[in-house]
From TrEMBL, chains A, B:
Transmembrane segments: none
One Pfam family matching this protein: CYTH
Occurrences of domain CYTH (ranges): 2-147
Gene3D superfamilies: Hypothetical Protein Pfu-838710-001
Highest taxon, organism lineage: Bacteria
Protein name: CYTH domain-containing protein
Length: 156, 156
């Protein structure tokens, strides 16, 4: 078991696009709600099954296992109630690794940056393209997006 | 992916008890409904994660992975919404393997025999202790038992 501590942000510019290369992720959820998720992911010809528990503040338990690609394809095709495809770009900034996810399909237009931290109070330098923090905003969780995709959000 | 074809029966006697030795299974469900299940199981010091899809008649897709024991213990303790503990006895009869599960806790009193078959029409010899078939009776599914445990069933 790993304990995942992540902070999540919107983007405020396009500067990150030239700072890394993207990889397409195909993923689906066998099960997903506010308390847990069971995710199948295919990226770069490999596949993983990931189980996450409930968020406790900004950390939560996570279990991840490599699985055969054929199993993942079968689960995506027949067992996943919710699909999320996105392009992930990894950017290193001031000694820290950022992952930036551009969503496709129903969530097109949504771009999120995430950083994984050793503990909840760890300091880090903010890249110039970093926007508003949304770590605590449940609308950016997959549980919420699966019910109300980003393309259906209305801006006031 | 394996495609699991199982038939399930009640027991009509105790003759099976002396025909095999039992092993205690501790298991829990990360997720469980009528369409799928994500199960953690610990037995004999080993652990597995098993994902099953929707029943199609009496067969359904199944994916199983060995996982570290410590992961399974953590998932049972913190992530499983439903726990089922039982004792499993394996009995060989007329060239076929039967598994007989005695349930504990909320399902105490329930004993089920299962046989795995190569296809839905495969013939097999019926042991003398075999009772009524309940393969199609959804009350004997974990999805139903998790909501209405056997100890709360009333007999007419």
């Amino acid at each position: 078991m790993a304990c995942e501590i992540e902070r999540r942000f919107l983007l405020s510019g396009e500067g990150w696009r030239t700072a890394g290369t993207g990889l397409c992720l195909r993923q689906g959820f066998v099960s997903l709600d506010a308390h847990h998720s069971v995710r199948v992911r295919i990226a770069g010809g490999q596949a993983w099954l990931t189980i996450k528990g409930e968020n406790m503040a900004i950390s939560r338990p996570e279990f991840e296992y490599a699985i055969p690609l054929a199993d993942a394809e079968a689960m995506l095709a027949g067992l996943c109630s919710y699909r999320v495809d996105k392009r992930r770009t990894r950017v290193r900034y001031a000694g820290k690794d950022w992952v930036i996810d551009e969503f496709f399909g129903d969530n097109a237009g949504l771009v999120l940056a995430e950083i994984e931290l050793a503990d909840e109070h760890e300091e880090f330098a903010r890249p110039p393209w970093l926007g508003e923090e949304v770590t605590q905003d449940a609308r950016f969780s997959y549980a919420y997006l699966s019910q109300t995709p980003y393309s259906r959000w209305t801006t006031a």
